[in-house]
Amino acid sequence: MENHTNIGIGAERTREIADRVEAFVRNVVVPYEQDSRRDHHDTPTDELVTEMRGKARAAGVLTPHILADGSHLSQRETAIVLQRTGLSPLGPLACNTAAPDEGNMYLLGKVGSDDIKARFLKQLVDGDARSAFFMTEPASENGAGSDPSMMLTTCRLDGNHWVIDGRKAFITGAQGAKVGIVMAKGDAGASMFLVDLPDPAITIEHVPNTIDSSMPGGHATVRIENLRVSADQMLGQPGEGFKYAQIRLAPARLSHCMRWYGACVRADEIAADYANRRQAFGKTLIDHEGVGFMLAENLIDLKQAELMIDWCAAVLDTGALGTAESSMAKVAVSEALMRIADRCVQVMGGSGVTSDTIVEQVFREIRAFRIYDGPTEVHKWSLAKKIKRDWKARQ
């Protein structure tokens, strides 16, 4: 997998990390794709994840975007490394760069107190725990989704503790997580709290079967009743939850783009190999214009996605919040990757819809990616509002 992006001063170091990650994913992780250790939702079990992480730790590629001294690669550097972890749907799990953990580590590293970093962040960076981010709420109750201001989960101060009540939905990784970041609204506004999991006050009501199957713990509906959280477990200050959500979400959207870009690179490799080997009507499929053109369009979409990721990462590296830029990247990249995954299935015909290769899984995962971290339409609506604000400012 080649990447010719100019990544600046840390280029040599980043390429060395990325090359080690790619070798590990291709040689060690890919064989695990046929491993039967899956739950009834077809997601990898914690046993499987733990085994892969042990091998990643031994190979020196566990949490590769966070260095031994605790410093973090730049977003442009992170992009190159996370793209390599994404070459297998299991790669981010094995290398500890998967959602929601990667985004949660980023947030705690930026905002967490020393105590929170020692108690909660360290176990995540070490790959010893999974985490969950409790923000989205059930649509049936008209709770927070793409519009977090609709949050219904409440928090109130009681002595030296906060008491939290509410319900959450589509909480990725909640089942089996050891660290939770819970968002709730109080008199000062929305706040975030760190909690140890499991906790008897947090009950998993339902884990639905979903189109994707790459994230352990699924996407649970959760009830929170009389959860008591020590005041020192609040992240930052009261009422700053929405600000912290933006700190997390802009890079997290981009990280999804990075990882699934890698998956589509691999899917395209598999489809191209098939097209160059399979014979039909007297010649290989690649020599049929309809197939060859689909693979050519894949190359174009992959390059455009790569450049969009790098551009957005460069904006975030300036220290800008990057909300609009991450929205543009999320839309452009997720839609491009959907086209790529669809073409890969089409090129491979019947083979493309079987589990004999990862192509059909990549198709399913990318379809889900177009929804989570904000559906395409919500990001377009947000960008349209920005266009209107900018227009008014010029009048």
From TrEMBL:
Domain Acyl-CoA dehydrogenase/oxidase N-terminal: 12-128
Regions crossing the membrane: none
Lineage top rank: taxon: Bacteria
Cofactors demanded by this protein: FAD
Molecular-function GO terms, alphabetical: acyl-CoA dehydrogenase activity; flavin adenine dinucleotide binding
One GO term of the biological process aspect: fatty acid beta-oxidation using acyl-CoA dehydrogenase
Domain called Acyl-CoA dehydrogenase/oxidase C-terminal: residue spans: 239-386
GO cellular component, as recorded: cytoplasm
Keyword Flavoprotein found: yes
Acyl-CoA oxidase/dehydrogenase middle domain boundaries: 139-208
UniProt keywords, alphabetically: FAD, Flavoprotein, Oxidoreductase
Coiled coil: none
Subunit comment: Homodimer.
Family: Belongs to the acyl-CoA dehydrogenase family.
PANTHER family (alphabetical): ACYL-COA DEHYDROGENASE FAMILY MEMBER 11, MEDIUM-CHAIN SPECIFIC ACYL-COA DEHYDROGENASE, MITOCHONDRIAL-RELATED
Record protein name field: Acyl-CoA dehydrogenase
Organism: Sandarakinorhabdus glacialis
